[in-house]
Design a protein that fits this description.
Elements: E1 2-10, H1 14-25, H2 29-37, E2 40-48, E3 51-58, H3 64-72, H4 75-84, E4 88-89, E5 101-102
Antiparallel strand pairs: 1-3, 1-4, 1-5, 2-3
Amino acid sequence: MKTYCYTLDLKNDPALIAEYERYHEAVWPEILESITESGIRNMTIYRWANRLCMIMETDHDFDPAKKALLDASNPKVQEWETLMWQYQQALPGVEAGTKWVEMEVVFQL
């Protein structure tokens, strides 16, 4: 099992944050399928204020670049991503339009 951690900001608007969370109470089945079929075994998203942290546990052969290519060619995933971008915003200091940014491990027990 491999573990990845990504971060992203939501727009700092309580109503938009609440809406974003409502969507994640009932994620579309096609999105869940695309996640599990790619080799992601567990995914958890945490929120503090408008900052998100996503932790993924994956199969050993999981490849984030391959997952990105599959997502780019999946119309339902693209529809979801477009919808979610209404609530999300790029982190300070990253290229405009960049979504989830992989975090670097600085300690592990």
